[in-house]
Amino acid sequence: MKIIRSLSLLALVLVLCTVLIPAVSAHRVHLREQIMDVQIKAWYGGGDPMPYADVKIYYIRDEQETLYLEGKTDENGLYNFTPKLGTSSYRVEVELTGHGNEIEFDLTAGSQPEDAELPLYMRVLVGFGFLAGIGGIAAYLSARKMKAQ
């Protein structure tokens, strides 16, 4: 009887230890991402960069915009800035000689894909291809109609 009581007590102690004492790990690894720099890329429709364009960066907090930084892009149309601590939403304006655009982004949403815009000469070739295709379809339908008569 003493053995059963002792084993029961030991089992109770073991169960309480596993339930009440948190798991311990001497080799636990902790990770956290940290964004040190944000790069803004500005370019024209043909793919050429916007060198030395004016850049204004606004941070957005509680739906209020506040001017954070002003500067210029480099010769490759790039501008880097360090995000403001505790802020993840930004609006960026880029302008050069009347040409400009703006973008609003949230750092927690990840990076946005780069626009896959074709260069001007490729867009012209694609346009001619569409016109040739439409002309070919019209010629086919016209020939089919003449053959039917």
Topology:
Blueprint: H1 2-20, E1 38-41, E2 54-61, E3 64-72, E4 78-81, E5 89-96, E6 99-106, H2 120-148
Antiparallel strand pairs: 1-4, 2-3, 2-5, 5-6
Gross morphology is flat
Query: In the CATH classification, which architecture of the largest domain applies?
Result: Sandwich
Distance between the termini: 111 Å
Task: Estimate what percentage of residues fall within beta strands.
Answer: 25-35%
**CATH class category name of the largest domain:** Mainly Beta
Mean pLDDT: 80
Rg of Cα set: 32 Å
Please provide the count of β strands: 6
Oligomer category: single chain
Uncertain spans, ≥5 residues at pLDDT below 50? none
Following the backbone from N to C, one meets helices and strands in this order, namely: HEEEEEEH
Structurally, how many domains make up the residues? 2
Helix content: 25-40%
Which sequence of strands runs across the widest sheet? 3-2-5-6
Summing up helix and strand content along with how strands pair, one would put the structural category as alpha+beta
